[in-house]
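Input:
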Amino acid sequence: MRKSFIYLMYALTLICVASCHDDYRDYTTTGHILLTLPTDGEIETIQYSVKMMNLNSRNTITQAGKTGGTIIIENLFRGAYSINVEGVVRYVDNNATTHTSQFRAQSDYVSMVELNDNSISLEMILMD
Amino acid sequence: MKNSILILLLLIAGCTAVSAQDIDSTVNRHDAIIEHQALFNDVHQISWCNPAMMESAYSHSLTHFYLTTDWQKKSAPFILQKGTGHFFAAVKADSYIRLGDNTAVWGKASYTTGKNHDIKWNSIADYDLLEPDILGDTIGGNTRSEKYVFEGGYSTHRNRWHLGGEMLFRAEQEYRKVDARMRSIVSDLTLRAGAGYDIAHHTLGFSFHGNIYRQTNSVDFYKPLGSIPEYQLMGLGEVYARFSGDINDLIFKGGGIKMQLDLAPQNSYSGIIANTWVAQHSYERVARLLNSLPLTTLYNKEVGVRAGWKHNGGLDYALWADYQFNRRSSDQHLAGTSSSQIYPVIAHLTMYKNYIINTSLTAIVGRKGVTSWWVKATGGYSGNRQHFVFPRRTMKYGHVFGLVEGQMIVSPSKFWTLTAQLDGSYHASVNDHLLLPLANMEPQFINMIEHNFNVLRSNFTHAGARLRADYHIGKSRYSIFGEMQYGITICSNHETQNQIIFSLGVHI
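Output:
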């Protein structure tokens, strides 16, 4: 009976250890937003202002800058977001003509929960 | 349910009347009162959570049936979510019966009804268990509650082995009859199994405790135009904004396990007191209106140790140290985009962390006899630290405290046993800190957190008295008793709490 008691204690200790819960501490990630043209052409540069709202907490972040096509947002809190990008794009079309145009790009829902790489593609709406 | 309670009370009465034949003298009844009421029992309170250790807890059977009222009033809420006080009335039965030299059974049954006053930011029951993952609103109000409790245990002793089992069940409902009409229905079941082994005038015990908990909760507004948002609170004023507002139909489901090791000297022996336990419980908040979407899960991990020495002799004394650490944390389950109101969970983040530490040193000395007395003194530190990860919020407060209790039980005649108990304590705040992202918070959340913090970081002074008189009715097995308890707590921000408890009943 003494052995059974010890085995029971071992078994219950294992249950306790196995049921322990670890925290989820990977709070931030990096988001990559690839902006694409609605027509054929090559982007030269984009001046942008991006606004992302965390759908679960309603916290909003904004970032502005210049890019060749991909907006990189570092230290982004992992979660589900809506995205709104506005700015000016300079691009070259197939006829080698350079255009400068205001644009908007948006999405009601994007998932930014992967630990390393969260890449999404948004098509720009040009406001010619 | 009320009928079930009455039937149970009658059953306990019947069993007690049959088995209490040994208590046929007033001397025995006086001894039973001393044994069951003694302040010195605090030495064993943790060991007695192991049902196997209950067989040797008392040598006298004792069963109480009584009515009790509990009135508490604060000048202002100490914690907004707990309100300004309460009034409860209850009928209770509490029994410990020895079945021969080696076996004991015990049980409790009670029905409690009453009212909580001026609760705010809390639309659920069991706030202490489930905070900060609660539902709350700015209106609040009084709530009514009904609670049923059943407990029963069995413990036996064969050779050097002790075995025991115990079941504890609580059913409770709390509701409000005006908007916001919250209603919570709780069922809480705990099962305990324990074993013990006698070794060198000590009993070495091990017990395993399992708990299943469930609370269904809803908030209704009969006047739709007057409805206000119900916030899914997540800690330190943060809310799960996406599902706050009209997601008022929740389930809290959870439970957990606890393991405990005990070493206690056998009755009438001196020796080492040692207890250690680990426990983990979790409670998931599920939104029923969103096809059972889990919103948060609260985890409570606990570890505790007690170590000391108990001396049995002409003068009984004991000295022990307590250490208890709780780590509470809450995971937020991040919902993705919905399809037909079905939301996938796309990730989990541990957003809230709470560390609670209690450590103390206790000494008790006293003597059991015709006039029994004990004096107990405790000194220690209690601290509480809370964080919300993003946006960063922090609250912490700590107190050093001293507590003194004295108890005297006398028998002025063979028909009377009188018990008097006095206690006083002082909690002095030694550290406090509050950090909130004020620019991002709405004013009502700031006010709520700051109100609670201003009380929690205060110095507290408490004084209490308890008087009890037992009258043993001649040669019958019955005694009647009356008890009054008064306590006053004053905190340094000039708020006061008064509490009065009356009890009247019989014991066998």
